[in-house]
Design goal:
- Strands 1, 2, 3, 4, 6, 7, 8, 9 and 12 form a nine-stranded mixed β-sheet that branches.
- The relative contact order is 0.18.
- Helix 1 crosses helix 2 and helix 2 crosses helix 10.
- Strand 1, helix 2 and strand 2 form a beta-alpha-beta unit.
- It is built from twelve helices and twelve strands.
- With about 325 residues, it is α/β, with parallel strands linked by helices.
Length: about 325
């Protein structure tokens, strides 16, 4: 399922409550009619829309989900204004300490960041240095990459973005020039390129701009766009498939808060990251059980299958096990 097919159905629906209707399948009467207030980054919003669509049917747990940048989303969560936050950026130690109702972070899915480009007939295989040099502005034409001559229009995210943080961390691992230049973060000073607002804008601009190239979640890439094969640490050129994403995820070591990343994995596709749902350790009394049921569904086989059908990567069993074990820390 591609981004352009989901825009009117999923992305617009994210701004309103999920549908609620009576069902004989409701599993927990205490959770009936609950509406959870939440946020998500654009990169993983369609996964939350799908999860809460199913939770509305099975449990009558609904979500009023707003899509916004990581900074504003975290500000709302820390203040206690929302019940959960979907993020592709790991919270800091200080944020754990300052959260009004405490914080638990659950890895719920993962994604690969693809190098997407609009040049039919051009099959890109990029070395680690070539990828950095494109975004450093040192490589300016597809002819330098083995394709027919066409200027490269580089695109990058404009506002602070977890996708940018993941991508620039990998560029920093790949290139000393990048590491000591723009560096890594939610927002960096790009040496070249045109800014776009979010993941949807990235896809739309790429699709409408022949010769353009940018970074975006692999789940959203469809025709007329292609994805570049990237050189792994061992020098093998890999596409952002589910298999290669899973191999890279297996190299991530989680800390005691279930946070972790690996910007240069030994195996698998090189640009991958986890996505977390943040919930209060001490949620509102009426919301605790609904949050537990919701996160439990995201971590279930059905929930993981939902995400995989949308193009996200299912979590390795070791990460799922640790996430499920943390459910008993929700105080309600």
């Amino acid at each position: 399922m591609k981004w352009k097919h989901l825009t009117s159905l999923a992305i617009c629906s994210l701004m309103i409550s999920s549908c609620s209707r009576p069902t004989e399948k409701r599993q927990n009467a205490d959770a009936a009619g609950i509406i959870l207030q939440g946020t998500s980054s654009s990169s993983i919003a369609i996964a939350y829309w799908q999860w809460f669509s199913q939770l509305a049917v099975d449990n009558n747990i609904n979500s009023d989900l707003q899509v916004m940048g990581s900074g504003e989303s975290m500000r709302r969560f820390l203040s206690g204004a929302i019940d959960f936050a979907g993020t592709d950026t790991a919270p800091t130690s200080n944020q754990f300490q300052t959260a009004k109702r405490g914080m638990l972070a659950f890895p719920v899915t993962a994604r690969a960041i693809a190098i997407a480009y609009n040049y039919p007939g051009c099959k890109l295989q990029l070395t680690r240095q070539q990828l950095a040099d494109i975004f450093l502005g040192k490589i300016r034409d597809f002819v330098e990459l083995g394709c027919e001559r066409k200027p490269i229009q580089v695109l990058h995210r404009e506002s602070p973005s977890g996708t940018t943080a993941t991508f620039t961390a990998t560029l920093s691992a790949f290139s000393e020039s990048w590491r000591h230049g723009p560096g890594a973060g939610l927002k960096v000073n790009w040496p070249t390129g045109k800014p776009v607002a979010d993941s949807e804008a990235m896809i739309q601009t790429l699709s409408n701009t022949p010769g353009s190239l940018g970074y975006v979640e692999a789940a959203y890439v469809g025709k007329p766009l292609s994805t570049a094969a990237l050189a792994s640490r061992s020098g093998v050129f890999l596409q952002p498939t589910s298999r290669e994403t899973a191999r890279a995820l297996s190299t991530i070591q989680l800390d005691e808060r279930l946070l972790g990343q690996n910007p240069d994995p030994k195996t698998g596709y090189p640009i991958v990251s986890l996505a977390w749902v943040l919930i209060p350790r001490q949620p509102e009394q009426t919301k605790g059980e609904a949050l537990r049921i919701s996160v439990s569904y995201m971590l279930s086989q059905s929930g993981q299958d939902d995400a995989e059908r949308l193009g996200y990567a299912p979590l390795p069993e070791v990460i799922l096990t640790r996430s499920k074990q943390q459910l008993n820390q929700i105080q309600h």
